[in-house]
Amino acid sequence: MIPSATAPIGVFDSGAGGISVLKRLWKLMPNENYIYFGDSANAPYGVRPVEEIRALTVRAAQDLFQRGCKALVLACNTATSAAAQTLREMYPDVPIIGLEPALKPAALSGGHPTVVVMATPVTLREEKFTRLTERFQDDCNLIKLPAPELVTLVEQNKMGTPELTAYLQALFAPLQKTKIDCLVLGCTHFPFAKREIKALLGEQVKLFDGAVGEAKYTKVVLEERGMRAPQNAKGEILFLSSDETKLPLLRQLFDFEL
Ligand code: DGL
User: Are residues 93 and 160 in the same domain?
Assistant: First the structure.
């Protein structure tokens, strides 16, 4: 059955991080309906075996399609590296929009910059990111920085706490003598720690994340396929989580100023 134009867009993340993408989608397309599903009961994904992440992502996608979603936005770099290809093979007629760390704009920002890519261990070691680095490694000095615990700290709503600051201080300590030009937030949870990151590294470090780009690309894909909701429609968002105690956090992060 072909879903109607007012059918919801499914937005998926391992947990609460994908709200940073949902915010951008909503800003760009407030006339669309959305179902956000965060798999917080199984987060973090980024330290799990890739087969497990794939199975969890496929299960979540199946559930969103059963709920009538017309498209799926993978608001998770880790789930994209593990499962986007499989999902596109399973659902060849459905738009499935994936996410990757915003290395390209950072590497091409000029002057052969030093670019630190912060992401989950899985994102940094999977083939998708390896292919991306092959394209841009000559344009910059690339440093990979896995930061899996930052996912857990955001899931625990630890923004603005000394615990989060202490974690970031320890994470960046080995880079103390490095002049960082660009920092890529290659995990959708990380923009929620932007304030603390800026306070630690200074305002001169340029931050990049893929959420705006993914939202814009989703709009283009839906327009190309004639799948946009009517312009005058009033969209709604349904928040779902595999851990219901996280529902207030999802709503709180939706109001978080990024
Ligand atoms: N938010 C996810 C991402 O963009 C990963 C979080 C996790 O490890 O569960 O990569």
Answer: no
The answer to whether 142 and 133 are in contact (CB under 8 A) is: yes
Identify whether 1 is part of a domain.
no
10 close to ligand 1 (CB < 6 Angstrom): no
Q: How far apart are CA 193 and CA 249, in angstroms?
A: 15
**Structural domain of 93:** 9-99+211-254
Q: Is the CB of 13 under 6 A from ligand 1?
A: yes
pLDDT at 3: 80
Tokens matching residue 190: 């990380």
125 CA distance to ligand 1 centroid (A)?
14
**Mean pLDDT value across residues 121-144:** 97
Report residue 1's pLDDT band, with 50, 70 and 90 as the boundaries: low
Of the residues 23, 100, 189, 208, which should be mutated to test ligand 1's pocket, given the most ligand atoms within 8 Å of the CB? 189
Residue 3 lies in a domain: no
Q: Is the CB of 210 under 6 A from ligand 1?
A: no
Read off the pTM: 0.97
Does the pLDDT at position 2 exceed 90?
A: no
Q: Is 123 in the pocket of ligand 1 (CB under 6 A)?
A: yes
Is residue 4 situated within a structural domain? no
Q: Which H or E run includes 119?
A: strand 114-119
Number of domains in the chain: 2
Distance of CA 151 to the CA centre of its chain: 11
Predicted pLDDT at 236: 98
Strand partners, 162: none
